[in-house]
Predict the structure.
Amino acid sequence: MQVRLDEFQNSWYRPGRGLAVQALWFLFGATILRCRILPGSTVRRALLRCFGARVGIGAVLKPALRIKFPWFLTVGEHCWLGEDVWIDNLAPVTLGRNVCISQGAYLCTGNHDWRDPRFGLRTKPIELRDGAWVGARSVICPGVTLGECAIAAAGSVVTKDIPPYEIHAGNPAQFVRTRVIAE
């Protein structure tokens, strides 16, 4: 069997909002949310909320943040989303409280089925539980959950869940040690 990208179709996928809202989000997300000269997080939080994101108090949203569909995003209280973070959320992404996503990290909820000759789209949600940390330039793949206070070290490619208080690193990410938080 050959790969048949000319037969690809994902008409089953529903992005959660109509074309007009998607177009408005594209316009405002690209110009305001991603703006590198806009100081602070207040405007970014308000913009995301206007488009359906649930954003907790004290969330820090750095410049050049990229969100595919804000209506599929929940950000808990006091989370930090670093510069150039890309949340490619074709499915829900849920961040607990005090979650840190460092600069350049990529959270991807969609992929293609490599077994399907038509390269069918597959989506799965991502969840980062309270106190989890995604290191700089890490990739979190569809369907992954980082447990409470779990860490994906810088540059990791996380394809499987990370249990609570574990640190994983590498490509693919592997267990390194247990996280101990000082008193």
